[in-house]
Design goal:
The complex is a heterodimer of chains A (215) and B (161).
Chain A (H helix, E strand, L loop, with lengths): L1 H40 L24 H5 L14 E2 L17 E3 L1 H10 L3 E4 L3 H6 L6 E2 L2 H5 L2 H5 L8 E4 L7 H12 L5 E4 L2 H7 L11
Parallel strand pairs in A: 1-2, 2-6, 3-4, 3-5, 5-6
Chain B lengths: L1 H4 L2 H23 L2 H10 L10 H21 L3 H24 L8 E4 L7 H18 L7 H5 L4 H7 L1
Classes of the chains: A alpha/beta (215), B mainly alpha (161).
Chain lengths: 215, 161
């Protein structure tokens, strides 16, 4: 009898495990959908659309508004101080940066592609001391306080037809946003991108850096 | 060696270890789901998956959390191990596929916090965790071989009844 019980126990075991697996998967899916739905009903809404938007439908605006699209908001939300996200194309090519008359966000991998290709002017909006301790090679140093009080310096920037990428210290740093707005609204520059991750994210990715003051 | 790998203490330790790792990974992903969805997108698993990116980002962390709880608390831990092994298998395949296509993307394995990128180290890390999960999938080696052989013989079952 004892042997029979053991045999039955062993025989039912895979079935028991499968039931457990099915339970974990089903409950996990339901919890995920419910959690997201609750987030979408919250204020401000935080959930995502269930079905991702097809990101290849806007080839000339690749990735524009990607973050907003995932949240179900319009692709180009002009109420957002940073109107959208510019990301590298699906095939890894450089994106066409649209001229929307306002700064756009750009992510680290796209900044790296622009950097590798030398296809953008990169501006470091931190103060000279931080710049000297480490910056993206080739970046111009435009400390925001000095640059904002000297519009002529911003107007004199010549990106040579390339977009301008502005970064600062990441996190709560707003210097890059201030410089980007000044470049567009005061100095009349076009296609200005804000790299919000900034120097800390660039370093964390293991990308190259350079020390020393601007020559 | 086989008996050692099926030692109850080793199996339980593997289950708890993989449970803690899964819990960490799940919480990191839940902290920024849109970023996780973008990381899934970056793997470019087309054309099969383009519309499932958001759904996958929504449900995967919760499945991971439930598997982790099952492993850590010891409630149906073999089921939790099987789920973890299946997820790790899929993640490893995705990383290998990304590597084979020369993609330099963020792994997303532990959310955006780790910032780790796909590479050989990530494949080895995943394989190590997969091995742990597979150890946790095993039944403890407690029954004598004679009793286990009875499983393969339905006739013995019927004669007993």
């Amino acid at each position: 009898m004892q042997e029979r019980l053991l045999v039955e126990s062993t025989g039912r075991d895979p079935e028991c495990v499968l039931r457990g697996v099915a339970g974990i998967v089903i409950v996990g899916v339901l919890l995920g959908l419910a959690f997201n739905q609750l987030g979408r009903m919250g204020s401000p809404p935080r959930g995502m659309a269930w079905i991702a938007e097809r990101k290849t439908e806007l080839p000339s605006l690749e990735g524009l508004g990607g973050a907003q699209e995932r949240g179900g908001a319009p692709a180009a939300n002009l109420d957002d101080p940073l109107g959208g996200v510019v990301a590298a194309g699906e095939d890894g090519s450089l994106p066409e940066v649209p001229d929307l008359g306002q700064p756009l966000r750009v992510d680290v991998s796209t900044v790296k592609r622009f950097y590798d290709a030398g296809a953008a002017m990169i501006v470091d909006a931190r103060d000279a001391e931080d710049y000297a301790q480490g910056h993206i090679p080739g970046a111009l140093n435009l400390p925001s306080e000095q640059a904002l009080s000297d519009p002529a310096r911003l107007e004199a920037l010549d990106p040579g037809g390339r977009p301008i990428i502005v970064y600062c210290g990441g996190g709560a740093c707003e210097a890059s946003m201030h410089i980007a707005e000044a470049l567009i609204y005061q100095a009349g520059k076009r296609r200005v991108l804000v790299y919000e991750g900034g120097w800390p994210e660039w370093v964390a990715q293991g990308y190259p850096g350079k020390t020393g003051a601007e020559r | 060696m086989s008996a050692l790998l099926r030692h109850p203490v080793l199996i339980r330790a593997a289950q708890i270890a993989i449970g803690l790792l899964m819990a960490w990974a799940a919480l990191a992903k839940l902290s920024d789901l849109p970023a996780f969805a973008q990381q899934i997108h970056n793997f470019r698993i087309y054309p099969f998956f383009e519309f499932g990116e958001n759904l996958a980002a929504m449900v995967l962390p919760w499945i991971e959390i439930l598997a982790a709880l099952s492993l850590i608390l010891g409630v149906r831990p073999r089921a939790g191990s099987v789920v973890s092994a299946a997820l790790l298998g899929v993640f490893t395949l995705a990383v290998v596929a990304a590597l084979a296509r020369g993609l330099n993307v963020e792994c997303g394995c532990f959310g955006t916090a780790s910032g780790s990128r796909v590479g050989l180290a990530k494949v080895l890390e995943n394989l190590g965790m997969l091995a742990l999960a597979l150890i946790g999938c095993q039944r403890a080696c407690s029954e004598p071989p004679g009793e286990r052989r009875a499983v393969a013989s339905p006739r013995e079952v019927s004669t007993e009844s």
